[in-house]
Description:
This protein is of the alpha/beta class. The chain is built from 16 helices and 15 strands. A four-stranded mixed beta sheet has the order 4-5-7-6, covered by helices on one side. Helix 11 (about 235-255) links the parallel strand 4 and strand 5 (about 265-270). Helix 10 (about 190-225) runs parallel beside helix 11, helix 13 runs parallel beside helix 14 and helix 15 runs parallel beside helix 16 (about 445-455). The model is unreliable at about 1-5, about 5-25, about 95-105 and about 145-160 (pLDDT under 50).
Amino acid sequence: MFCCLRVVRRLCLEKILLQCIIQSRTLSGADAINALRPFYFAVHPDFFGQHPKEREVNENSLKRLNGYLENLQKPGFRSFKPTQLTFYVREREPNSSNVQESFSTSGFRAVSFTLHTRDLLSTVLDILNSCSLSTEHVQSLNVNSQPHKEAKSTLNRPIKWDKTYYSFTGFKDPEEDLEQAQRVETTLTSWLDDNEASAVKKLKKSLPLRKELERLKFELSHQLQLSDIRWQRSWGIAHRCSQLHSLGRLVQQRPEVVKNVKGRTVVFTDRSGMSAAGHIMLGTMDVHHHWTKIFERLPNYYKLQKRLLFLQDRISQLLGGIQVIYIEELQPLLTLEEYYETLDSFCNKLLDSRLRFHPHSLRGLQMILESDRYTPSLHEFGHFTIPTVCDPATLQWFIVAKAQEARENLKRKEEMMITETELIGTSTEKFSLDRLYKEPSVSSAQMIDCCKRLLEESLPYLQGMHLCISHFYSVLQDGDLCIPWNWKS
């Protein structure tokens, strides 16, 4: 018996010694933020204003990363689950990396990695290494200078002991739990089991605000005779209500400035003006004075929009009747002025080149213009993506060569959209969902595949819920359930 007590005493002394060693290499919360500055600069959503899909992915991933970092700083927190994150990283030059990544022509790359570390320092290094960012500055941080109070919080942090320690004491080996969690891939059913209660609680809490949001949206739309009110980003319900209240106060104080909005769509976004699609943009960081200016300028915007439509028709005539369109979900967010300049420059280039297309030979086809590409391409939905700097001869050859394939893709798109709408309706009805929707970055093909597999499952957890098809698992602040389109059963 005394022999056992001596062993336990020796183990306890070793544990205290190891705690002191670990404290000497831990980062404080402030140090972690400083160390991750290059990462935040590379992925911050504000730098992706012209790429809404990538911006949304980074916003959601940052929320999940912040939650992971907060949990690391909680005393005694042991329930760590491997967290997979995807970020679009701004880059000057493509670098090689061991993580899964794909490059685009838009100046950024997609990086995916899984976090399973249990201290701030290791987590920071993992993030920086995964994104091919320098870690030299981390070594220069004074990691020993954290206050005694914060050092005290590390006393309960799990320590890696020899396997015999866990056999002798009967305690659970956290490393073994982690390895098991990594081996067992997250399934839809297991994730819903773990997160249903949290989602239901958040959803119930948000219900009064949801009703308030619907009321405000209906009243303002009716009062101003608007076609719709939208939000560019996935703000929470409370944030959206606040924006509508702000617009309502402006309407009440200055009713004369909103007389020209009939039939229009108002979009709350990061900048004020009129969008390339003809929607009225109200910047959420702007004050009433800026919004008032936008409403007062509407007559001039409408004149510019007519000139823009004329330019689109002119380009269409020069290119054999192909229709020039602007797709909000796929293209960067442009103001009306920016889009007009793009069209004007492209039209002048076509006039100078004197391309010859048979009149109406390309009628029924569609194209979009992009300024951040260099080679033309054909989208799976059937529209051509044409760079504004594209050589006219290359442009003509590409469109003529791909015309038939484009028509087939357009036809397939129509069929796919019908199938997607039907499957969303069927899934909503089967699971008694309050709402089923997808993120803009999820394609119709992915949504169709997801819904078909969902319909084969029995999921009573989903009754009355708001379900978002995304690229990862998450419970949003207002109770919406996010699941990846390629979830595992």
